[in-house]
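Chapter summary example.
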Amino acid sequence: MTKVKVCGIRRQEEALWALEAGVDAIGFVFAESKRKIDVESAALISASLPSHVLKIGVFVNESKKNMEEISRIVNLDYVQLHGDESVQFCNNLDLPFIKAVSIKEKEDLDGIEHFGGEMILVDSGKGPHRGGNGTTFNWDYVHALNTPQRLILAGGLNRDNIREAITKVRPYMVDVSSGVETDGKKDRRKIEAFIREAKSV
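The structure predicted for these 201 residues follows.
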């Protein structure tokens, strides 16, 4: 069964909705974004989550020192690197990490296997932001991928396309943010519907 991550959680009740719906991972955005959360709030939400739910912090071109500090305070299981972090930077980190790769063209996947870590995230490169744009990419691109990492699929996923996405890509985990929002805020019914649909594939 495909695992589900809900990213961009900012309030305790949003985390609770996701938890009750059967979420496997919660994402906190610490990079500049409309979904950015402060460290103290993330730490409070994190402390309320059971140990089986992964706590993942999203960073863009952040310093190693800051990531280590935030990771310690919030008790993160992984840092998700959504910037221009090099293979060397990633593999020198003393933290469990997930490298996110933005895909516009098939060539954007070149060299993806050189990043270490247990998981790698593929996201759409279309849109103004580093993630959370609500846009998809051509899922056929990942068919030829043969990486040692577990694959996380992100980018424009919602209740209506998640079945097709999982069937085509067969990812280890799917990552949703804008697809479970209404007017820029997390929507309980959309979270429940998305997780239910994803878990039923």
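To summarize the output: The mean pLDDT is 93.
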